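#structure-requests
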Amino acid sequence: MRVLVIGAGVGGLAIANGLVDKGHDVRVFEHADALRTTGAGITVWSNGTAALRELGIDIEQIGRPLHSLRSLTETGRLLWEADLGEVTERLGSPTVQIPRRTLIELMANALPSDVLYFGRRCIGVTEHPDHVVVDFADGTSVTGDVVIGADGQRSVVRREVLGGAPAKPTGWASWQGMTTSDLPIAHGHQTLNIAGRYAHCGLIPTGGGLLHWWFDMPWKDGDPVLSVAELRHVYRGWPDPVEQLLASVTDDDLGFFPHIRHKVPTVWGGPRSTLLGDAVHAMPPAVAQAANQTLEDAWLLTQFLSDVDGSPADLLRAYERERRPRALKVSRTAALTSAQRSTPLQRLAKFPKWLATRSQVASLRSGSNVLRGFTQRPHVQVA
């Protein structure tokens, strides 16, 4: 089957690896002139590492394994700590932090040389009974059996095949970056989250002395984008090592990302199209699952398209029916968690370590298809 993938981000490269391994003729079209390797770190939780492993991508020896997840208040009081080593034992796959650029390059390098095409901006998708045509801004077009929209929150494929409203802002934003650091946390294996009443921040070791850090605050369109100096003022007096980190970075290190959320539709495509990742369920980063849910999509779609003979429409809809409840659950949790950051709800009591650990296991499993297993593709009648 000839599969056209729009977008060479995490989702596009993941599904390409999966489908190439199944013997399909895959072409990935990216609007940029080269791989987009910007961004900070990605926390690949147990569901994400399991999905990657099934797709033939092993990051366990490349990324930074995480053994603990701690959450504090802005006064330094411990709220809870989860043992990620136990999470790994229970779910059978580790939690790994990796620079986004490293993951992108690893997945791209695993593909045959004739799969990736750059400088090809999709402007139209037309589905026919026996094929689909994708048009590009340079006046060219390509024909395939299936098109997969992995082109992010502003997905052209979604607009073309579904229409509807774009992703909406949530009222929060992140100021984040990834820098080389001498702070002890950068050389450990523990994620630190600090939850204030009206702000939030986190620090994650990313390997090689790199530290991924972020600062989340309420923000709406028209509000000023804060500088590092202004962040230092907002986070003055927060627990170590927040002030030390902010003293070590500059505005050049700072990336700004408003949080958005998509309405997750019931149907994700047409007779010969579907979506994955942020194109269908963009969500705020409050539970750090966006990339992991994208990898789940790629893994499950690979299973459904592993052996296609004839029209793929029934298989695409079956993939969506199987995947949507999990992705929707995680999207809602991320939105709720983000909204509650400005209330004292999450700050009322300290949770014992065993409970925080089991809650992490339950949360990851409930939003996952890959952790629940999928030994064979369910029978779907194909025309």
